[in-house]
Structure formats: C-alpha cells, structure tokens
Amino acid sequence: MTLTRETAAAKARELLHVDVTPYPHEELEADLVCGGFAFDGGDRAAIIGYDGGYQTSMTELSGETPDTLITGWLVEQRHRHGAPDAPAEPAAAPTHPCPICGTPTPHTDRHPASVCAECERRAADRDGRRIVALSDGPFGGVVVFYAESPSGTQSEIAGDVLETGRCWIDGIECTIDEARFGGVVISRA
Asked: Are strands 166-169 and 36-40 parallel, antiparallel or unpaired?
C-alpha cells in the first residue's frame, strides 16, 4: 500500500490526539526511501514515514520545531537505511561568536551566550583555579572538579562552583548549566 498524505494525516491525528495541518517539506517528501509526510498540531508535530515508521514531538515543551524534527528524522532514517543519496554537504550549522573570544561557536536557542570549547577549557573558580565540568550520569546533573589537585587529577570537587553555578573565564563571569540532551554548557553571565 502506498502512503498518501491523507492516510498519513489520519495516522498523525491518531498519534497526536489533535487536528493536524500538513507541513510540506520538499526534501522529506522527495526522499522515497527515508522520507514521508510532516504534520503540525500546534504544540506538537509528527512525521509519518513512507516505510510505516513515525516520530512525534511535543514541540512546545521540547523547544523543537517541525523543521528540526524533520532534519533529525532524515538523519536517522538515512543512517538506518544506509542511504547513499544523503546530501554530500550538510547545511552549515548555525553559529554565534563566542562571547569571550569571538570564535564561531555552535548556536542553540537555549544557550545563546555559550562559549567556545577553547574558552571552556580555561574556566576557573573565583580564585582562578581551573575547573572541569562533566555530566553526572545518564539521568542528568553536573559535577565540577578542579583540573588539578594534590590528591590527583579531577579528584577534588569544586564545591563553590557547584553551589553557585558560576565560574570565570579570563576574569569574565560565566554560568555552568546542564545541556538539554546531556553534557555541560558554559555561558557568559
């Protein structure tokens, strides 16, 4: 059975429990192996794949958009299918200048003042002691160690930084926060 926009819309309504409107996307609909149809349901969205698979997102809660959902879907499906027709050159990811040194830095709307990786390596506590911030495990959280300590590398927790969520890079106050899908992000305060 060939998937039509109408049957895909019915499936999207069933999955999202709301009325949906088609969200036309040329690249998604043109890829007959990895593509499908996208639908917008206001605060949620769905993709119904030509292969019978689907993906949904509570866009309002996740901060995602139908376009980011589509991009993720195409990447996953092309990897899954080993599709050779994936674009040879992916679109350039958005960047912003690092607020410390000006280097182009990957941009996310959640962390518009995030610093570049090089500046992150220079993060220190209030007294200038260099720190290293890491994810605290698969269920979230952040742990911050001093980069060097008498008892060994990354063996001493930087309690003041953890308590305040503040660090400094080149004397500029910054915040340390958990990134959306794990990891740590340091942003200029």
From this structure: unpaired
- Beta-carbon count within 10 A of 124 CB: 19
SS3 content of the chain, % helix, strand, coil (to 5): 25, 30, 50
Report the pLDDT value the prediction gives residue 1, as an integer from 0 to 100. Answer: 45
Per-residue pLDDT, 90: 57
pTM of the model: 0.50
Rounded Cα distance, 8 and 68, in Å: 19
The tokens describing 134, both together, are 């890491």
3-state SS, 77-108, equals HHHHHCCCCCCCCCCCCCEEECCCCCCEEECC
What is the gyration radius of the CA atoms in the chain, in angstroms? 21
Mean pLDDT per 10-residue segment, the chain (189 residues): 84 92 91 90 91 86 85 86 60 86 89 92 93 76 83 77 92 89 85
Q: Longest C-alpha distance within the chain, in Å?
A: 68
114: tokens are 């995030």
Q: How far apart are CA 84 and CA 91, in angstroms?
A: 17
Confidence at residue 125, expressed as pLDDT on a 0 to 100 scale: 94
**Cβ-proximal residues to 140 (8 Å cutoff; 6+ apart), any chain:** 178, 182
Can you read off the two tokens belonging to residue 41? 């349901």
